[in-house]
Amino acid sequence: MRTRKGLRLTIVATFCCGEMYSPMSAGRHSPTIADMRRGCGIDSILPGVPLLNIRRGATSGAFSAFRVSEWSVRRKVVAVLAIPVILAAVFGGLRVSTELSDANGYSTNQQQASVLGPAISYLTATERLALPSDLSAKIGEEQGDAKAAYSTASTNLKQAAANAELSSEQSSYVTNMLQIGGTLESGSGTGITATAPVQLSDMNRLTTELINSTLNTQGTPDPKVQALVQSLDGRLSLVKQQLLIQSNDQQSSLLGAVWLAAEIGVEGTALDNLKGVLTGRRISLLTAANGTRLGLATSNKVSDLAATPKMFAVYDGLDQRLLGNIQTKVAASASQSKSRALTDAAIILTALLASLLLALFVARALIVPLRICAETDGGVTIKSSTCPATRSAVAGPAPL
Questions:
Q1: Contact criterion met (CB below 8 Å) for 95 and 348
Q2: In whole angstroms, what is the distance from residue 64 CA to residue 71 CA?
Q3: Helix, strand, coil shares of the chain as percentages rounded to 5?
């Protein structure tokens, strides 16, 4: 027999839940307070009362998607297998991106290096323009008149600079070279800084900076690039010697003779630096001629120290050889870098595809057996006989 207090609790719980409980419908066990409170969607906090269905609050439920403990088995397996694949794809993509960037850098250097040939030709044409007329006529006879050769070299340099996609700094080098050459060609310069030796030195410096910036030698300098720079310095020194000889012929002075000997020494220093990188007939010929002029500088007439046209031809041939080797090396580096980047990209993509297929296979092998046993509200329903451990856990211990 129910007490009046128990009946009142039953009625209140029944009214709260919007449904009727009766002792007959509840079976041989009467509904407990926890049963009725669970039906109302609230949890029992009374000690000793069973908690069959604990529900989390609204706040914790909003963040349940971020709780690993709340994830399903399928989601956990996918996360374990997908994270390494994603990391491999990221690092592989960074590797390929770096190599492609290097390949683009080599390609840019190769394209910009196309301006070096016209720049060196323009420098030599300007130097020829500044030489004494009798020597200038003998140098580069196949190129025609010195002024015609200068005009052709200037046009070629402008076209090459327009097609080489130079940086703003490199373009400024070319612009300044053309400006100095135009001043020398027209003879419009005034002052001590407008003399031919000073202007040719400025042009040679600009050409050297253009070479270094184009061939990217700020790190470990290429020995052949440095050899090209030393060859240009030696040729410039030889041109200055001819200008000093011409000046001494017009007005002889002891100071001019000293400067001439000093300039011969400058050429000798450039050739010594050049010999540290290259050897061959051209280097030996230039070194021997320089030594002869230096030995005669204090005893012979200044006019006897004039260089022959052959010396300029040797310097020109040496410059062309060095520049050709450098450009060939840059082209080979660009091609190898592109091939390496494409090969690595293909290998990484293949490896990622294989790892993705393997992850799918492993995920299927792990998830399918785990789905055989399904949880329900009241216990565990066995869908297959392949879960003996779960079946024995549900059945409980065998009776004695």
A1: yes
A2: 8
A3: 75, 0, 25
310-329 per-position pLDDT tens digit: 899 999 999 999 999 888 88
What CA–CA distance (Å, rounded) separates 275 from 287?
9
Identify the bridge partners of residue 181 per DSSP, sorted by sequence position: none
Q: Quote the pTM value.
A: 0.65
Question: Alpha-carbon dihedral of residues 182, 186, 190, 193, nearest 10 degrees?
Answer: 40
Domain positions in the chain: 1-55, 96-343
Tell me how far apart the alpha carbons of residues 400 and 392 are, in angstroms, rounded to a whole number.
Answer: 16
Provide the phi-psi class of 191: left if phi over 0, else alpha when psi is between -120 and 50, else beta.
left
Asked if 153 and 118 touch (Cβ cutoff 8 Å), the reply is yes
Can you tell me whether residue 101 is helix, strand or coil? helix
User: Which tokens in the block code for residue 147?
Assistant: 């002024």
pLDDT per position as a tens digit, 354-374: 878 887 787 777 766 666 554
Q: Which helix (H) or strand (E) holds 40?
A: none
Report the C-alpha gap between 148 and 131 in whole angstroms: 15
Specify whether the CB–CB gap between 332 and 109 falls below 8 A.
Answer: no
Cβ–Cβ < 8 Å for 122, 159:
no
Q: Facing residues of 381 across strands? A: 374
Q: Which two tokens stand for residue 110?
A: 């190769």
Spatial neighbors of 366 by CB under 8 A, at least 6 apart, are 77
* Residue 254 per-residue DSSP state: H
The answer to whether residues 213 and 170 touch, using CB atoms and an 8 Å cutoff, is yes
Mean pLDDT computed over 186-193: 72
Gyration radius of the chain's alpha carbons:
45
Q: What is the DSSP string of 155-199?
A: HHHHHHHHHTT--HHHHHHHHHHHHHHHHHHHT---SGGGSHHHH
